[in-house]
Structure formats: structure tokens, C-alpha cells
Amino acid sequence: PLAGNARESWVRLVVGGCGVRKIEEEDLLSLKLPSRVCAGVPLEVKQPMMKAKPPLSPLFIQYALKAAEEALNDSGYKPETDQEKERTGVAIGSGIGNVEEIAQVTRTLDKRGIRRVSPYFIPSILVNMAAGHVSLSHDLRGPNHACSTACATGAHAIGDAFRLIRNGDADVMVAGGTEASIGPLSLAGFSQIRALSTKYNDSPEEASRPFDDGRDGFVIGEGAGIVVLESLSHAIERNAHVYAEITGYGLSGDAYHITAPSPCGRGATNCMRAALRDAEAPASRVGYINAHATSTPIGDVIEAAAIASVFSDPDAAPPHVSSS
């Protein structure tokens, strides 16, 4: 939402830029939505992508292709041999994929019949097609994986890619998440479960306020975030620039409700502890937590309590917490 590429996004981020804006998309303005703010891809970046032809036309695929290309270029890695291509995979997930296409094609079917349904319809809505098209675009023949786990999708894709490398199934993985969720059906659905901020329609830069007393829901966003992961030995061999190391990964489920977290925070607590166990690291080593932080009145309280329960050592400096 800050810009059309990582470098410009970073420049805006470090000077305190805000990617939240008023909804300007014409197909949304007439809906009289209770929430009229979004963290959307800048329109000057988004609109040219909307002209892409099938099967590349879905925006969630466009976002993934652009971010993956940028990540690979930044990594300096381009597999050349068959062996290198077969040891390089893709793990890119999406929470809702191309849900707006389902609504549009349903209307077409109702009004104009089956013959007007595009043969590209099914490939355009499948979540795994983002990973598939990145693989096709760069001839990456290793593991090809997609997950769809709502807000955790991107983190799960990166964690799964980490495990594929650690287990010896790949040397390099292009991993992350992509979402094109700013559309009529998506916004209507999130509005009806009262998950979105509605108090700050006239001051969008104030709407996203996790853990704040004035919070009233999250700001819906879109875009893609992709990283290139590789084994340490592979990175050393090619003298790669290393930004960070993944040392542990944990997953859990609350088994409580379809949308609400368990009041005791057991899901988040178990997940953080699992990641620490996997990393063989004490909680005191953690200096920063990127939280879920939905900005909902209930969710933030539960997550804050879960963080406090895991990072409870009075002799250790508490980790910094924010959310992206």
C-alpha cells in the first residue's frame, strides 16, 4: 500500500508514511459501505495491472508476479541448470484468492448462460495459481505449494518453505503471500461481521490503531510480500546478501470458534512457544514481535495477554510489539 515496490515502500515507511487511504475505486463508492478506508495498492500501480489478459488477469496473481520478480532480482539468484531449477521451489499463499471473479461469473451465468462462462474461470480463482504462475514465469521446478489460512497465510507459506529447505526438499524457495481483497464482495462480507474500522472514514491515516483505546476494527489491505529463502550453505556458496535467518517455526489452532480467538489466548501462546522450541531459543532472545493485532476490541486484549504469558521473565527486557 505504501508504494509499488519494496525500495519505495521502505523509504516511505522509515519517514512515517501511511498507506491507508479513502476508498476511491468506482465500483465501491456506490455501495455505501460502513467502512470507507483501505490500505490499497496505489491506483497508479493497480490500474495498469487490471488490463492484463487471462489467465494472468487476476490481481492476486499480478501482485505475486511483480513481487516475486522483484525479490528474485534483489536476491541476485537466477537458476540456470536443470538441477538448479529443480531445486528451486515456490510457496505462495492467498487468503481469498480471486473471490470477486466468482461473484462476477455467477452474474454472467445467471444472465447469459453457461456458454458465456470463460474457460479461464476455474484457473482464475484457485489460490494455488499465484504460485503456479510464478513457477511458470521463472521456470522453477521444485516444490510448488500454496496455503490459504486467512491472516496467517503469508507467514505459513514462509514457514512451510523454511521447512522444505530444512528437510532437504529444496535449496531455494520463493515464498510469501498475495491478496487482492479490495472489492465489493470482500468488503461487504467483512462489513457484515463488523470486523472493519468505521470511525475514521474522514481521517484514514488514523484508522489502523492496534492495541489502542480508540480501536474499532482493522483496515482491509491488499498487495503481496515475497522473500527468497535459501539454505545457509547455498547462500554462502554464491556469496548472497543475507537479510535475516529463520531459526524456528510454530503453528497452532485455537479449536474454539470460526472467527473469535480463545479467550485464554491458548492458540497464540502455543504457537509462539512452538516456534521458540523449534528454534531452541529462550523467550528472552526475542526483541521484536510482529503481532496479528486485528485492532478489534476483543482480539487485541487476548493477543496482548498471550504475549505477556510467553514473555513473562521479569529480568528480561520486554520485546517491542507492532503489526504490519
Automatic annotation (TrEMBL):
GO molecular function annotations of the record: 3-oxoacyl-[acyl-carrier-protein] synthase activity
GO biological process: fatty acid biosynthetic process
Record's protein name: beta-ketoacyl-[acyl-carrier-protein] synthase I
Any Gene Ontology CC annotation: mitochondrion
Phylogenetic classification of the source organism: Eukaryota, Sar, Rhizaria, Cercozoa, Chlorarachniophyceae
Family, similarity comment: Belongs to the thiolase-like superfamily. Beta-ketoacyl-ACP synthases family.
Pfam families the UniProt entry points to: ketoacyl-synt, Ketoacyl-synt_C
Keywords of the record: Transferase
Keyword Transferase: yes
Domain of life: Eukaryota
Gene3D superfamilies reported for this sequence: 3.40.47.10
Organism: Lotharella globosa
Residue ranges occupied by any Ketosynthase family 3 (KS3) domain in the UniProt entry: 1-324
InterPro entries the UniProt entry points to: Beta-ketoacyl_synthase (IPR000794), Ketoacyl_synth_C (IPR014031), Ketoacyl_synth_N (IPR014030), PKS_Beta-ketoAc_synthase_dom (IPR020841), Thiolase-like (IPR016039)
Broad class of enzyme this protein falls into: transferase
Entry EC no(s): 2.3.1.41
